[in-house]
Amino acid sequence: MTTGATKVVYQRPKLLKEAHFHYCPGCGHGIINRLIVEVLEEMDLQEDAICVAPAGCGMLLYNYFEIDVLESAHGRGAAVATGIKRARPQNLVFSYQGDGDLAAIGTAEGFHAANRGENITVIFVNNGVYGMTGGQMAPTTLLDMVTTTTPAGRNSRVAGHPVRICEVFSQLDGATYLERVAVNKPAAVVKTKKAIAKAFRHQLDGRGFSLVEILSPCPVNWKLGPLESCKWIDEVMCKQFPLGVYKDSGDDDASPAGRSGQTGAEVKSCS
Ligand SMILES: Cc1ncc(C[n+]2csc(CCOP(=O)(O)OP(=O)(O)O)c2C)c(N)n1
Ligand code: SF4
Ligand SMILES: [Mg+2]
Fold it and tell me: Does a structural domain hold residue 269?
């Protein structure tokens, strides 16, 4: 759009309410929230989309999204989304979940929704910690990473290894689109938006379970500045969590037989 000599290249998405984000400076949640509503707006899904919000820093989504939002108990997002989608298959239903939410307390719900091939989308925000409750270790916390519950760094002998959700879920025949992206630099943000749009399209086409894992900075709990946090994702986090498409049923038949054997389609490093 052009107004006089001024070309408008960006404006606030209509589906983002006029509210101030409560997120800390440099947090990735705000970027991810904006991308989701941009995609919904561009796909004209305002009336059809239903979001299931988590317990975690993303819990106040109803303050920001101009769509229907339901709050779920901690970790139960994929189960709640399953119920809504089964009752209202005509709607686009997605859960928004942190790594504590999906990969710790909600492991069973997420894993089995993926295994059943529920036709829902999970937006999975991996910031390597329990952000909201003060930066405790999450299943995704890197080895040697200092958190409030691993003050000497995560030690695999007592605290296990970082859980890689895309890799784990890619073993499940019911999961048909899995991609890991990041929001630490402009090109990565563009890719993240494309991945969210692709996941929503996947659901609208009835192709089964889709999940977009997004590496997202939490500067406050990482004890890094916003810029350092973005660099840390590239230099450290991406080594443990390589970006890329882990599964994509593509044009294949979305029947269970057509869903299997598509793992590790296109896995890339960060840069
Ligand atoms: C049943 C239950 N157990 C524990 C909590 C406390 N709690 C709230 S959010 C949270 C962790 C959130 O971490 P994550 O899902 O990674 O989201 P983030 O804040 O990092 O985005 C926990 C343990 C809760 N709300 N409900
Ligand atoms: S604690 Fe971390 S995840 Fe939560 S709002 Fe602050 S920066 Fe974001
Ligand atoms: Mg987290």
Answer: no
